[in-house]
């Protein structure tokens, strides 16, 4: 009975060590993730216009359900395996990732919700994140 459990333990440790130090990809702060590559280009063009207001752009694109803006707080809430590339189209990549939001309801109670996003961004907006 001990031999099978020892084998399972050894296999688990080997698999765990194989993934230690592996790089996964996450979004850079200040990245746009949009419904289509064309919408991504539009968001970048709008953000680069003189006198453009980033907060207004973020609100408008979210209200129209076209894009989301990944600021530092948003990137920090991304869950492992972070951004997974689903498709490539030139310099753009279609990614999927899950973000976890926590809301404190009372002293001992909180609400946790997870939202999975799928969208297009520039490949340069992905960076390696080492998992220890």
Describe the protein.
By secondary structure, this protein is of the alpha+beta class. Helix content is 34%, strand content 38%. It contains four helices and seven strands; from the N terminus they run αββααβαββββ. It has helices at residues 2-19, 37-48, 54-63, 72-76, and strands at residues 23-27, 31-34, 67-70, 84-89, 92-104, 110-122, 126-130. Strands 4-5-6 form a three-stranded antiparallel sheet, with no helix packed on it. Strands 1-7 form a two-stranded antiparallel sheet. Strand 4 and strand 5 form a beta hairpin. It is globular, with a radius of gyration of 19 Å.
Distance between the termini: 33 Å
Unreliable runs, pLDDT <50, ≥5 residues? 3-21
- From the spread of the alpha carbons, the general shape counts as globular
Q: Which strand order does the major sheet show?
A: 4-5-6
- Helical region count? 4
| Structural class by secondary-structure content | alpha+beta
- Strand count, sense and closure of the main sheet? 3 strands, antiparallel
Count the E strands.
7
Strand content: 35-45%
Task: Give the overall average pLDDT.
Answer: 81
């Amino acid at each position: 009975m001990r031999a099978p459990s020892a084998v399972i333990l050894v296999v688990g440790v080997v698999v765990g060590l194989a993934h230690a130090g592996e790089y996964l990809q996450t979004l850079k702060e200040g990245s746009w993730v949009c419904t289509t590559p064309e919408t991504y280009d539009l968001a970048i063009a709008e953000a680069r216009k003189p006198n453009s207001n980033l907060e207004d752009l973020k609100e408008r694109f979210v209200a129209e359900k076209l894009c989301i803006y990944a600021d530092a707080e948003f990137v920090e809430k991304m869950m492992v395996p972070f951004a997974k590339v689903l498709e490539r189209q030139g310099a753009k990549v279609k990614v999927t990732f899950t973000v976890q939001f926590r809301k404190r309801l009372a002293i001992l109670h909180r609400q946790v919700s997870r939202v999975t996003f799928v969208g297009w961004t520039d490949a340069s907006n992905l960076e390696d994140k080492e998992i220890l």
